[in-house]
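Ticket #4471: structure export looks truncated?
Reporter: QA, pipeline team
Priority: medium

Steps to reproduce: submit the single chain below to the structure queue and open the exported record.
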Amino acid sequence: MIRKLVFLLLVLTAGCATVSQPTRYYTVDMTCSGETVCPRSVVVERLRVVDPLTRRNIMVKTSSTQIEYYARAEWAAPVDDLVAQKLQTELGESGSTENAYALTGTVLVFEQVDHPQSPEAYAKVRVVVREREKRPLVTVLEKTYEARMPMASATPADAAVALSRALEQIAQAIASDLSQVQ
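Actual output as written to the record:
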């Protein structure tokens, strides 16, 4: 009887001894693409995020009305910081910030989208660009930018790479619009 009880106890505790998968951390590629040419220095001052992006877990849109988050895949920093750093890297500070633009805005979408055909990364950022040194503040550009990039596979690592490329595309569009400002 004691042997059966010990055996039963060992079987039951074996299920409790499973090892959970570690959390993996991701960031966007902060390497400058070299594709963005901005007419003046841009200082990314502050970005906010919409509420669903305040979590560190990487967001996945599974349908037009449902989102999920990777349980064991998180951003290494808050999304607003990652996007701000990447935009700053792409738009750059070309020398002095004395005559620079100031960029603020809101990250509206930063997610992996699971389509039946193939996954994609989707980023959408509303930006406001102002003359940094002029008072009163003069807004020179206010626009929402978005970019979708195909993903090699539906994994957090591929989402991070594709979202990096999406931000590069957004930075190029911002720089192009700023080159039209007089």
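Status: closed, not a bug. The export was complete when the record was re-opened. Leaving a note from the reviewer for reference: The longest strand covers residues 101-113.
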